[in-house]
Amino acid sequence: MDLEKLSEELNNKKVEAVLEKESNLYRILGPKFIGRLVGRTREKCGTLQYKVVALTILTAEYITYQIPTDDIIFIKEIFM
User: Fold this and answer.
1) Where are the beta strands (DSSP E) in the chain?
2) How far is CA 40 from CA 16, 17, 67, 80, in A?
3) How confident is the prediction along the chain (80 residues), in pLDDT tens digits per residue?
């Protein structure tokens, strides 16, 4: 899953993220998490390369969660 490209496409859109069972956020949020993708955190992994390490999702209660990309199984846009 190319999160760099995917996060650009889904920026500021309503998304559903499915989390891994072993993650800490799975115990807090449950298996599926719905919110608006509002940002990403990138880390430098070379001289000119960056890697997405976390996605920031805003909930309906205006609480933001920064979810590590290792905890996300897949993410997709939902329409309501």
Assistant:
1) 14-19, 32-44, 50-58, 64-68, 72-77
2) 15, 14, 9, 23
3) 788 888 899 999 999 999 999 999 899 889 998 999 999 998 998 888 888 899 999 998 899 999 999 999 999 999 87
